[in-house]
Amino acid sequence: MIDLLRVTIIVPTYQDWDRLKYCIKALQLQSYPPELYEIIIVNNNTSDELPELDLSENIKIISESRPGSYSARNTGLSVAKGDIIAFTDSDCIPDKDWLRNAIKKFQSDSGVERVTGPVSIFRAPGTSWLSWKFESITAFNQKYNVLNGVSVTANLFVKKSIFDQVGRFNASLLSGGDVEWNERATDANIALLFSKDVVVLHPARVSLSDLIIKSRRVTGGGFLRAKDEKKLLNFILWYFVPPLRFAKVLITDGKSFLEVLLAVSVFWPIKLLMIFEIIRLSLDGKPLR
């Protein structure tokens, strides 16, 4: 009989207690034995008063005052006891077999070092049809991500020992730190496996204005990284290029012509709008978190 692995689930949160309650409930209902996994909630707003939460014995809340989810994840890593580290976000709802199915991959092959799976978009009450449809077409293309050696931290499992080899997340980034860390892991030949049955649900942004805020946050993360890597000119020029590659990726993923047309019609104006965000950041503006 194969010994079951111990797991630490790290969930950063920032002023998101209402949605976190659903995430916690989904994690408490996992089909994996509860005595074999711990859940570490990292509060990234130390001035926030903690609400009443229904916490089981394997859940604890800690705090990190330095802004940013990657800083919060690093703090969670510093106290994690599991052999495997699982990451998800406070607005995510993992499937009931999320843990069990991921751990099976590690148990079946000792060469598996990172595991990820689909992040499926759902439409929460009050969400506009357009923002939901756009994100259901474009967001979290994990199959494509894995082909490029990366994954989002909304759904990622990593052997804890890998962090000793690759290092932790870049805490200076407020966005894009999951891609940056996974690129380092891939460069270090750390295997990344996509599994269709390791599923997390993620709500679509409520409105187009929320999509723009998200785009500003992502642009800010990319701006800081490009500046550090001295690739700022290439980063800026990308925003002027029509999204042909974006459309090609969607077509390759099996999206219909009408879906691609809708996605490009929304994405291209938002992309051009981000030029103003780049100008703001260039004038010493602070990236959004």
Describe this structure in words.
- Keywords: Glycosyltransferase, Transferase.
- Belongs to the glycosyltransferase 2 family.
- Residues 8-139 form the Glycosyltransferase 2-like domain.
- This protein is of the alpha/beta class and 289 residues long.
- The chain has 2 domains: 7-203, Alpha-Beta Complex (Spore Coat Polysaccharide Biosynthesis Protein SpsA, Chain A), CATH 3.90.550; 208-282, no CATH class.
- 45% of the residues lie in helices and 15% in strands.
- It has 11 helices and 10 strands.
- It has helices spanning 17-28, 69-79, 98-108, 129-138, 142-147, 162-166, 177-187, 208-228, 232-238, 244-252, 257-282, and strands at residues 7-13, 37-43, 59-63, 84-87, 93-94, 114-116, 119-122, 156-159, 192-194, 200-203.
- Helix 1 (17-28) links the parallel strand 1 (7-13) and strand 2 (37-43).
- Helix 10 (244-252) packs across helix 11 (257-282).
- The N and C termini lie far apart (46 Å).
- The model has no long low-confidence stretch (mean pLDDT 92).
Which labels suit this protein?
single chain; 289 residues; alpha/beta; Spore Coat Polysaccharide Biosynthesis Protein SpsA, Chain A; 2 domains; 7-stranded mixed β-sheet; 3-stranded mixed β-sheet; 10 strands; 45% helix; 15% strand; glycosyltransferase; transferase; Glycosyltransferase involved in cell wall biosynthesis; Glyco_trans_2-like; glycosyltransferase activity
